[in-house]
């Protein structure tokens, strides 16, 4: 897949697959194009060329909404704003077929909308319990700790009932205890039918969670395989030399 900005090629033929039922790590030096890849795959930025296949269909160039409906959801490296809503309201807002959407209400009437809302509320509670956010479910999201905000961001993604989630640095700025907790939660997801593609600069975190690991540099795949094999790869070592891992 290819993508350039103002004539500068950021993605230069990056090509790989992500297996269902796994946590795949995506690493590479700062500026390698990892976040851009997420932007293209999630529909935020169209590819210039190439193909993105998900669950048997071409999704390249689809809108973020269509990609998310297909079962592929992403989170952001820098957490977006949390409007003045409770944790519960936040989760509800990201539900699939939210009855608040006018089309739903118009087509199905208020009874069906109420039923859907009840089902979503149950799902929101399930996800809150799973992420250990149930004790703070009525708190304002803005008042959560940094780590809890990261968990809520994962919760929002899960509300869309994804098959694959793209996580961009889910532990950035989080203390080690919470980092481990986030890791434990993520390890549970493949068992619940959710696969993960994870960008992370913390190599300990990658080593604990991810198999396989893919290393990108300059818009291409440099190496892929087990964490140890990728770490030992001379090209990977060279790509990281003198740069900050990102
Ligand atoms: N919207 C954009 N406009 C211009 N340049 C961009 C844009 N998005 C990313 N880039 C450039 O693409 C390169 C790769 O960035 P990024 O995908 O964020 O790398 P990574 O996440 O691996 O650190 C950087 O040089 C960045 O400046
Ligand atoms: Mg990035």
Automatic annotation (TrEMBL):
First and last residue of the signal peptide: none
Cross-referenced InterPro entries, in alphabetical order?
AAA+_ATPase, ABC_AA/LPS_Transport, ABC_transporter-like_ATP-bd, ABC_transporter-like_CS, BCA_ABC_TP_C, P-loop_NTPase
The record's listing under Gene3D superfamilies reads: P-loop containing nucleotide triphosphate hydrolases
Alphabetical UniProt keywords: ATP-binding, Nucleotide-binding, Transport
Per the record, a Pfam family? ABC_tran
Gene Ontology molecular function terms on file: ATP binding; ATP hydrolysis activity
Q: Which GO terms describe its cellular component?
A: plasma membrane
Q: Does the keyword ATP-binding apply?
A: yes
Which positions fall inside the ABC transporter domain?
1-243
Under the heading PANTHER family, the entry gives: CONSERVED COMPONENT OF ABC TRANSPORTER FOR NATURAL AMINO ACIDS, CONSERVED COMPONENT OF ABC TRANSPORTER FOR NATURAL AMINO ACIDS-RELATED
Q: What family is it from?
A: Belongs to the ABC transporter superfamily.
Q: Please report the name of this protein according to its UniProt entry.
A: Branched-chain amino acid transport system ATP-binding protein
């Amino acid at each position: 897949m290819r993508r350039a900005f103002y004539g500068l090629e950021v993605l230069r033929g990056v090509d790989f697959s992500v297996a269902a039922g796994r946590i795949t790590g995506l690493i590479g030096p700062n500026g390698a194009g990892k976040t851009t890849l997420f932007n293209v795959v999630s529909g935020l930025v169209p590819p210039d060329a190439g193909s993105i296949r998900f669950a048997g269909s071409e999704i390249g160039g689809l809108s973020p909404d269509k990609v998310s409906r297909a079962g592929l959801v992403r989170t952001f490296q820098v957490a977006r704003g949390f409007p003045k809503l409770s944790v519960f309201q936040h989760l509800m807002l990201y539900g699939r077929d939210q009855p608040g959407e006018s089309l739903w209400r118009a087509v199905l009437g208020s009874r069906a909308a109420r039923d859907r809302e009840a089902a979503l509320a149950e799902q929101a509670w399930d996800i809150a319990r799973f992420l250990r956010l149930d004790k703070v479910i009525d708190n304002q999201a803005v008042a959560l700790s940094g780590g809890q905000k990261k968990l809520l961001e994962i919760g929002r993604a899960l509300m869309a009932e994804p098959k694959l989630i793209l996580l961009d640095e889910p532990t950035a700025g989080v203390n080690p205890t919470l980092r481990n907790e986030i890791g434990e939660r993520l390890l549970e997801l493949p068992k619940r039918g959710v696969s993960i593609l994870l960008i992370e600069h913390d190599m300990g975190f990658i080593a604990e969670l991810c198999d396989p690991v893919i290393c990108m540099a300059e818009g291409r795949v440099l190496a892929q395989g087990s964490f140890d094999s990728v770490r030992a790869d001379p090209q990977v070592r060279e790509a990281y030399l003198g740069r900050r891992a990102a």
